[in-house]
Amino acid sequence: MSPVGQIPHGTLDYAEVAALGVRPDDLLVFSSNINPYGPPPAVVKALRAALTPAIVARYPDRLSLELRARLAAYHRVPETAILVGNGTADLLWLIGLLHLRQRRIAVLTPTFGEYENVAALMAAPVTRVDYPGWQRRAEGIFTAGENAVANCAQALAAAQPEVVFVCNPNNPTGQVLHPDELEQLYAAAPAALWIVDEAYSEFMALPVSSIPWIERGNWLVLRSMTKDFALGGLRLGYVAGAPALIGPLQQAQSPWNTNSLAQLAGIACMDQLNWRKTTLAQLRADCAALRRELQAAGFTPRPTTVNYFLMPVADPARLRAVLLQRRIVIRDCTSFGLPSYVRIATQQPDANRRLVAALVEYGSGEL
Ligand SMILES: Cc1ncc(COP(=O)(O)O)c(C=O)c1O
Predict the structure, then answer these.
(1) Which of the listed residues 33, 227, 308 should we mutate to test ligand 1's pocket, taking the one with most ligand atoms within 8 A of CB?
(2) Exposure pattern of 309-341 as b/e (b: 16+ CB <10 Å)?
(3) What ranges make up the beta strands (E) of the chain?
(4) Would you list the domain boundaries of the chain?
(5) How far is the CA of 186 from the centre of ligand 1 (A)?
(6) Atom 3 in ligand 1: which residue has the minimum CA distance?
(7) Given pLDDT bands bounded at 50, 70 and 90, which one contains residue 1?
(8) CATH T-level topology, domain 52-269
């Protein structure tokens, strides 16, 4: 079990930025999986119009009632099946508080590091189960392989977990488990509480949603609004689940957890679903173009269903450091247990061309 604490993420490290002597806006950030076309201009406009002394001074709605109603209508679930929070990561810690303490946890890996981090906080023993398509070479070190869903199901059944974490689509691999595959895995541990993180679902051409499965009563789905609507600085996410699971989570949530401007932005985002559809379609085209350019330059980006992808390189830490000197940030995937990969999140075309030029200059031979 890894020690609990602040773990590496692709988001900007502000101390590192300060040490470089630059401002965050001076950097091209390929390390954080956020819609580069956002936030929606209409949302920024709504925030500007709402930014009065009164909204700053007044406490927010503790239950985010208006936003919750919009999200419930969108997903066709009762309002009591949704809990809004200060980002998905915050909700993950809340779920940890109520459901992870000293429980047997299974995590499909390689994946987002916070699941194991929260488990460590709650003294919960973790069994790592290899994500379909990935195999362990050594403890915590993965390689792309032929691991079938059936193998994964078998390993899950053997772990006898009380709680299962699945990131779908997965971070950092960009792959997805389709409903029949997820069902096969569920059958291996039907008594466990399933926590399915769909933070990146909307980036897919055909988004996956297991929200209808909350009816099972042991199925929680995490969704983030910081990625597709680009609200990383405001923080906004939600969890969907059976009201019997959501009620106690709501009771345990810290009061006034989601600030008024984040709630307002979330409500305004729900009027911008077309904006999301259009910009994410554009981003998928940008991603395909970037991958073609990288391939033409001799690199081998791995397939993906979303806006980010893995790319094998010989020395990710060195490449990251070299690119940082050129004001470009990429994600070294060593902390995911992928020490020969970087993760690249597609940006707008100009930025993508600058990345390819910098990589070509560095030399594909050296990578
Ligand atoms: C898979 C996954 N889930 C959740 C989060 C956190 O999302 P939020 O910004 O909503 O806290 C991230 C952020 O990197 C992520 O990659």
Answers:
(1) 227
(2) bbbbbeebeebbebbbeeebbbbbbbbbbbbbb
(3) 28-29, 82-85, 105-109, 126-130, 134-138, 141-144, 163-167, 193-197, 219-224, 237-240, 308-312, 328-329, 331-332, 341-345
(4) 14-30+273-366, 52-269
(5) 23
(6) 199
(7) very low
(8) Aspartate Aminotransferase; domain 2 (3.40.640)
Distance (Å) from CA 112 to ligand 1 centroid: 8
Region 69-93: mean pLDDT is: 98
Rounded distance between C-alpha atoms, residue 72 and residue 336, angstroms: 33
The pLDDT tens digits for 112-122 are: 999 999 999 99
> Which CATH number, 3.90.1150.10, 3.30.1330.40, 3.30.70.20, 3.40.50.300, labels domain 14-30+273-366?
3.90.1150.10
Structure tokens at 129: 């189960």
Q: How far is the CA of 10 from the centre of ligand 1 (A)?
A: 10
* CA 39 to centroid of ligand 1, rounded, Å: 16
Q: Confirm or reject: Cβ of 224 under 6 Å from ligand 1.
A: yes
The answer to whether 1 and 119 are in contact (CB under 8 A) is: yes
Site to probe by mutation for ligand 1, drawn from 35, 88, 229 as the one with most ligand atoms within 8 Å of Cβ, is: 88
Ligand 1 contacts CB of residue 237 (under 6 A): yes
pLDDT digits (tens, 9 = 90+) for 62-78: 999 999 999 999 999 99
Quick check: 365 pLDDT over 80?
A: no
Ligand 1 neighbourhood includes 262 CB (under 6 angstroms): no
336's tokens: 């995911």
| CB-based contact 123:3 (threshold 8 Å) | no
Peptide bond into 172 cis (omega under 30): yes
Angle at 328 between CA 144 and CA 202, to 5 degrees: 55
Sheet of strand 341-345: strand arrangement: 308-312, 341-345, 331-332
User: Is the C-beta atom of 171 inside 6 A of ligand 1?
Assistant: yes
Residue 172 CA, ligand 1 centroid: distance in Å: 11
Is the pTM above the cut of 0.90?
yes
